[in-house]
Amino acid sequence: MARTTGSHSQKTGPRVTQSAQRLFAQYGYAAVSMRQIAAEVGVQVGALYNYTPDKQSLLFTLMQEHMSGLLAAWKIHQGPENSTALRGLLAFVDCHLRYHLPRSEAVFIAYMELRNLTAENFDHIEKMRKSYEDALEAIIKKGMATGEFKVADSKIVTLAIIGMLKEVSTWYRPDGRLTEAALIERYQTMACQLVGAGAEP
Amino acid sequence: MARTTGSHSQKTGPRVTQSAQRLFAQYGYAAVSMRQIAAEVGVQVGALYNYTPDKQSLLFTLMQEHMSGLLAAWKIHQGPENSTALRGLLAFVDCHLRYHLPRSEAVFIAYMELRNLTAENFDHIEKMRKSYEDALEAIIKKGMATGEFKVADSKIVTLAIIGMLKEVSTWYRPDGRLTEAALIERYQTMACQLVGAGAEP
DNA sequence: GTCTATAAGTTGATAGAC
DNA sequence: GTCTATCAACTTATAGAC
Fold it and tell me: Which of B162, B85, B170 is nearest to B130 (CA)?
């Protein structure tokens, strides 16, 4: 299994992705050069093109995998179809925060770099974002139908909850005042207040 | 009052600012070149430097004026010191949305371009942002003290309300389904729900 | 105040040696 | 798989003519 001198293909690939993620999150896609990424990985710039066809693909892959992971997490986490809307809402808040809080770099990129995607890459990501939003709105509408929730406008409340949850990623630190569990509980309470649901079960 | 050929100083200055604002909002600070701004203004690149010492100042001025305007708007809008916390909260939501909704470009820049500020420029803007956040938290704490609000954690609720309000700027369009007044009312209601206040007065 | 020309450096991406 | 060398195009900012 002798390899060519200097071959590290089992390691360099992931390192390229990780370095791109870190640098894009810190400085922004447009402000980061391929040479900076190469330096972070520890190779020369030409070597990067063994792992990505171009800079744009690096960004798209990061965002696409982040959103796929989020939708997959929700699919697993949402539980049975016949549960109550209240349980669905609590699960959504729980799932959202558990997925986002340990992924601050990917979250930052996902929200900040949409405009640096090419048109077709943007459409792809936007569809995924929309389907996530729709998952929450479906819960709200269900709760309105069953009478569990008292909501004037499902669209506005959906966006308000999403906004409230997104904001957490801008300040949360793992070593902060609140544990993750305590934080989730507070946001579950606030989500319930926004939909006019009594308390937690 | 004869002017030098090609002199348009009374017009070019504002146009530089406006063009920078539009382009930074659309493509991001790092992705926009001074040549692009010049082209949008309708001058050659050298002429821009009659109006700004450098590109960074263009960004800083835009953000600084946006935040100054916001704080000034709140100073006017907040009303008498001895009013109720509930009135204060309603005024805050009203003021926030009325200021932000017609300024989508400046809002976008203010939230997206913080990391492209130099360290000292960032500190300056961050202080202003913090004082705005503090204004809301003061209202929440007052309501907790008077018993108007039932809130477990003033910091978290402050951030949740800010997050909910910020999110509006990502989708609001003046020609949308809801009038500005109707929108404000819905967000006032949701803010009241988050602080555990009864209804609007 | 605006222009053109220029400085000095960076960019994304490719070709070919090893 | 990685390197070096290279490309053409682009970057911010300045100098000096008009």
Answer: B162
Query: Which CATH code of 1.10.357.10, 1.10.287.1260, 3.30.428.10, 1.10.10.60 fits the domain covering A54-194?
Result: 1.10.357.10
What's the pTM?
Answer: 0.94
B101 touches chain A (CB under 8 A): no
Torsion angle, alpha carbons of B181, B186, B190, B192, to 10: 50
The total number of residues written for chain A in this structure: 201
Amino acid A199: pLDDT = 55
B114 CB-near residues (< 8 Å, 6+ apart): B63, B122, B125, B126
Check residue B80 and give left, alpha or beta (phi > 0: left; psi -120 to 50: alpha): beta
pLDDT of A18 reads 98
Q: Does the pLDDT at position A54 exceed 70?
A: yes
Position B199 confidence tier, pLDDT thresholds 50, 70, 90? low
- Does the CB of A176 have a partner CB in chain B at under 8 Å? no
Chain segment B97-126, per-residue pLDDT in tens:
999 999 999 999 999 999 999 999 999 999
Chain B residue at shortest CA distance from A115: B27
Domain boundaries, chain B: 1-52, 54-194
Partner residue facing A167 (CB), from B27, B112, B166: B166
Helix (H/G/I), strand (E/B), else coil: B23: helix
- From B10's Cα to the closest Cα of chain A, the distance in A is 33
Q: What tens digit of pLDDT does each residue of B28-64 get?
A: 999 999 999 999 999 999 999 999 999 999 999 999 9
For residue B188, the number of C-alpha atoms closer than 13 Å in the C-beta half-sphere is 22
**In the structure, how far is the CA atom of residue A13 from the C1' atom of nucleotide D1, in angstroms?**
11
The pLDDT, as a whole number, for residue A10 is 66
B1-52: CATH class:
mainly alpha
Q: Which of A157, A162, A34, A156 is nearest to A107 (CA)?
A: A162
